[in-house]
From TrEMBL:
Pfam family, one: DDE_Tnp_4
The UniProt record lists the keyword Metal-binding: yes
Gene Ontology molecular-function annotations: metal ion binding
Organism in which the protein naturally occurs: Macrolepiota fuliginosa MF-IS2
Protein's recorded name: DDE Tnp4 domain-containing protein
Amino acid sequence: MEMSISSMLNKRPDKFQEQIHITPPTFDALVKEIQDDLVFTNNANQGQQSVEEQLAVTLVAFPDTTEKEAAKQWVENHSCHAWCNGWCFVGGTLIPLEFWPAWYVVSLPNLQIINFSYGYTGSTHDSTAWEQTMIAQDYGKYLEDGEWIWADSAYPVCSHFMTSLSLDS
């Protein structure tokens, strides 16, 4: 798999993004951030897969139907049935990101990250960072009719966001 990852990353970035659900520059930045973590080492005589390969395998795991239904059930259990089609969250809706200002996350209620972009600082408007995610670029591929993403009031009003109302006035 490593050769195909490297080949796709360098020669077919469009295919890489389609398969891995992340842009090549974001993938490279993420590898750079995690490559020195001890989780990628062992004391066995058998070597591990490369960091790149382990990351790619992890990122390919977009939620299946069972995970999606579990997320919908969580939303229903914590709100009401009418809101269960909002099964994922964007930005810091569930994950406090104040210590990771360059990360932009789309997650399930169990905090499983299903899509993200990297490199946007706190001064970047949320909707600008959102536009770089795979889900934003082709939300019809990831969200069925009537499904939406929970977001804060910094996001545009549209059919695939349920945004909160600001009470500051």
